[in-house]
Amino acid sequence: MSELDNAKIDARRFTGGRARSNAITELGSGDDSRLRPRRPGPPFEQAVRLLSSSGTAGP
């Protein structure tokens, strides 16, 4: 249950009438000093080869 006024949100953000709001989620802000470094991924060329060979890559 929220006190979200969907009609006001829709009138302001979705003026075309094709979309309507359902819920609003605020993620907040994080503390970069507490994040772990990203793990390295495969090089771009290797990732493309893997995707191409599995049939999931685009045309």
Description:
- It is a single chain.
- The chain is an all-alpha fold and 59 residues long.
- 32% of the residues lie in helices and 0% in strands.
- It contains 2 helices and no strands.
Integer average pLDDT: 81
> Into which percentage range does the β-strand content fall?
under 5%
Q: Helix share of residues? A: 25-40%
Number of helices: 2
* CA(first)-CA(last) distance: 45 Å
Outline the biggest β-sheet.
Answer: none
Radius of gyration: 21 Å
Q: How are the SSEs placed, and which strands pair?
A:
Blueprint: H1 6-13, H2 44-54
In short:
This protein has helices spanning about 5-15, 45-55. The protein is flat, with a radius of gyration of 21 Å.
Keywords:
mainly alpha; 2 helices; flat
